[in-house]
Amino acid sequence: MGSNGTYAELISVPAGILATKPRNLSFAQAAAVPVVGLTALQTLRQTRIRPKDRVFVAGGAGGVGTMVLKLAQHYGLRHVFTTAGSATSFTQLHGLRLAPEQIVDYRAPDVAATLLARAGQPFGVVVDCVGLAASDIGASVLAVGERYADIAFLATESARERLFDKAATLHNISIYARSLPGRPADLRSFGRQLNVLRELFERNALTPAPSRVVGPLAVETVREAHQLLEANAGKGKLVMTMD
Questions:
Q1: Residue 103 forms beta bridges with which residues?
Q2: 165: Cα within 13 Å, side-chain hemisphere
Q3: Strand, helix or coil for residue 220
Q4: Which of 73, 202, 235, 240 is 20 to 30 A from 31 (CA-CA)?
Q5: If we measure between CA atoms, which residue out of 38, 24, 73 comes closest to residue 176?
Q6: Is 60 left (phi over 0), alpha (psi -120 to 50) or beta?
Q7: Spatial distance between the Cα atoms of 122 and 130, rounded to a whole number of angstroms
Q8: What angle (nearest 5°) sits at the alpha carbon of residue 229, between those of residues 180 and 156?
Q9: What is the pTM of this model?
């Protein structure tokens, strides 16, 4: 609802933002769905990604990036490329049925040139889940006049200048934006989108992104979870449970 959430045993929320849990997901798996799932779904919808588009996802092994890749495959996109920087990330992305040539090591020299060579042409859509250096790569490989989805909101000044020079259409992906007016009709859009995801899960057309149960809700668990996040060692969405 426009905040960074809360650590609480019980909260009160408008009914319009809710959907029933997918029958084939555990409670922990379902808890990891809304933020990454809504972000990924809204990214595809806002940028109007089409099957023929060449898409570059910066940070495809992360929570949002993984869901973007999963949804892109479900909707028939085949020209999707991403970056990775560890053996674990490469293995995870291979598990998403990405071919080796669709994954570029972001630690290698001249990543942008490698992406363009493998794609055969500049990209119609860039989804930036990382920011900073990745935003420079994304701005470099985007075609003139095309679509840039900014999820991380950490683009460098040079990336912003290049996107301006290319007359790129910038899509700021802020999943809570529709909640700001506070109108019931706007809030119900969240429930509808969650139900889209629920149906995909229940038809086995979509599998959940990686998640990790850190432990029961407690001060110690919260501390551990934040330490994992700060060390970039989460390896998926982190979940706390209720005993």
A1: 82
A2: 9
A3: helix
A4: 73
A5: 38
A6: alpha
A7: 20
A8: 65
A9: 0.92
Q: Which of 47, 95, 90, 45 is nearest to 70 (CA)?
A: 95
DSSP 139: H
Give the position of tokens 């408008």: 14
Which residue from 42, 1, 34 is spatially nearest to 198, judged by alpha carbons? 34
Q: Residue 196's Cα: distance from chain center in Å?
A: 16
User: Rounded to whole angstroms, what are the CA distances from 171 to 52, 57, 152, 199, 230?
Assistant: 20, 14, 11, 26, 27
Q: Identity (one letter) of the amino acid at 99?
A: A
In the structure encoding, which two tokens stand for residue 103, read together? 């994954």
Q: What is the pLDDT of residues 104-127, one digit of tens each?
A: 999 999 999 999 999 999 999 999
Number of residues written out for the chain: 243
Running DSSP on this structure, what letter comes out for residue 218?
Answer: S
Which amino acid makes up residue 86? S
How far apart, in Å, are the Cα atoms of 207 and each of 70, 85, 200, 221, 224?
A: 8, 23, 8, 26, 27
Q: How far apart are CA 113 and CA 123, in angstroms?
A: 12
Helix (H, G, I), strand (E, B) or coil at 111: helix
Q: Inform me whether the pLDDT recorded for 76 exceeds 70.
A: yes
Dihedral (CA of 162, 167, 168, 170) sign: positive
Both tokens assigned to 4: 């960074």
Decide: 160 and 181 in contact? Cβ < 8 Å.
Answer: no
- Quickly state the pLDDT bin for 178 (edges 50, 70, 90): confident
Q: Give the closest residue to 20 by CA, choosing from 182, 201, 183, 177.
A: 201
